[in-house]
Design brief:
CATH architecture of the largest domain: 3-Layer(bba) Sandwich
Number of helices: 6
Structural class: alpha/beta
Helix content: 10-25%
Distance between the termini: 11 Å
Number of strands: 12
CATH class of the largest domain: Alpha Beta
Order of helices and strands: EHEEHEHEHEEEEEEEHH
Radius of gyration: 19 Å
Length: about 260
């Protein structure tokens, strides 16, 4: 059994803890010990062994409005930007991310060491890295960056929770909007939660609105021996929540 440090106790961090535990090693999670609030726009795209049912819990119906170029212009400010638009017109299997995270929290919350990890105390954390056989980070990539010249590119967005339409509560639906006259780009009902997203702050005085960032590219090469797992840790487009688990599985196979 080897000791594996995991940075972050959000869904990605606990999926990594599961992968480490399943490999027969000892996951030790370092994080500000607060359970994350999963936005309604998140779901698991695949079954996770030992966590979810093998068969899908639901199916997501993807719907497109407008054009691919209109959607890219809204989200990235670049009509020629590559997006996943070609995939947004199908039905996909889905698993409830909120339920899965609840299970993971129940299993691993006692393994969380409450610490404040930031760029200011990164050298203090270096001793943590050195005392473990491997480290997996699910924290935003900037936290492990030691070079102020490194760039982290992305697009801001705002997400607002809406009342779930009574007839759609048991459905999983995602609408991608490339129409130029609408200011929002995505509306969804997932796991019973309805939400709408925009790259503009349409609700500046609404305390329920959450601001996020769509990570795209980074020039950071700091801490190359640390495995980055999850979209914000890898800081690139196209990384799904399930990918954190698969990244940790591969890291354990190479350990």
């Amino acid at each position: 059994m080897k000791k594996v440090a995991i940075l972050g106790c959000g869904p990605a961090g606990l999926l990594c803890a599961l992968a480490v535990d399943q490999a027969g090693h000892d996951p030790i999670i370092f994080s500000h010990k607060v359970k994350s609030v999963i936005p309604g726009s998140v779901y698991l795209h695949e079954s996770v062994p030992g966590l979810t049912e093998v068969y899908p819990e639901n199916h997501v119906q993807y719907i497109r409005m407008g054009t691919e170029h209109g959607y890219a212009q809204k989200v990235y400010g670049d009509a020629d930007r590559t997006t996943g638009w070609e995939h947004y017109f199908q039905v996909y299997p889905s698993w409830n991310a909120v339920k899965a995270y609840d299970i993971l929290w129940s299993q691993f919350h006692n393994m969380i060491v409450h610490v404040d990890i930031s760029r200011s105390n990164l050298w203090d954390m270096a001793s943590v890295f050195a005392s473990h056989d491997h480290t997996i980070s699910t924290l935003p990539a900037q936290v492990l960056c030691e070079n102020e010249k490194h760039k982290f590119n992305g697009e801001d967005y705002w997400i607002k929770t809406l009342p779930t339409p009574p007839l759609d509560g048991g459905k999983d639906i995602v609408i991608y909007n490339g129409l130029p006259h609408d200011l929002w780009y995505r509306w969804s009902v997932l796991s019973g939660v309805c939400s709408i997203e925009s790259t503009l702050d349409l609700w500046p005085h609404d305390p329920t609105v959450k601001k996020g960032i769509k990570a795209t590219t980074s020039t950071c090469t700091c801490w190359p021996t640390v495995t980055r797992a999850g979209r914000w840790a890898e800081w690139r487009h196209g990384v799904l929540l399930n990918d954190a688990y698969k990244t940790a599985v591969r890291a354990m196979e190479e350990l």
